[in-house]
Amino acid sequence: MTTAYVICRLEDIPSRQARGFLLARRGGAGEEIPWPVFIVRWGRHVFAYENKCPHQGTRLDWEKDQFMDGAGERLICGKHGALFELDTGRCIVGPCAGAALISIPVSVEDADICFLGVDLMEPGED
Ligand code: FES
Q1: Which of 8, 68, 110, 122 could form a disulfide with 12 if both were Cys (CB 3.0 to 4.6 A apart)?
Q2: What domains are defined for the chain?
Q3: Separation of 60 CA from ligand 1 center, angstroms?
Q4: Which of 49, 50, 55, 66 to mutate to test the pocket of ligand 1 (most atoms within 8 A of CB)?
């Protein structure tokens, strides 16, 4: 059975917007590894990615939760203006063109947005 973690409610993210979260994953020795991620919503569809540009490894949001371009149609790196497809995370313009963000399996269950198959730690959990 695949573990599902509820991250937030669908209505917490307006359509055509994205929201970042700082989660924590469990490392191989049980240690806590900070895991910045973001979720983008398009109507009933949601996509989730690690908040880590493929070319420099930095976060995309230059201001908190600012992941979308001006038209609200693509993801954007606030530092370099690189553009990424919403549904694939593939960079179509910018220094990492052709590379892709790391996607996270996500589903919507009873209006809860859930991550699937990841081993998350609760804050302060040992
Ligand atoms: S950090 Fe890679 S495009 Fe900005």
Answers
A1: 8
A2: 4-116 (2.102.10.10)
A3: 7
A4: 55
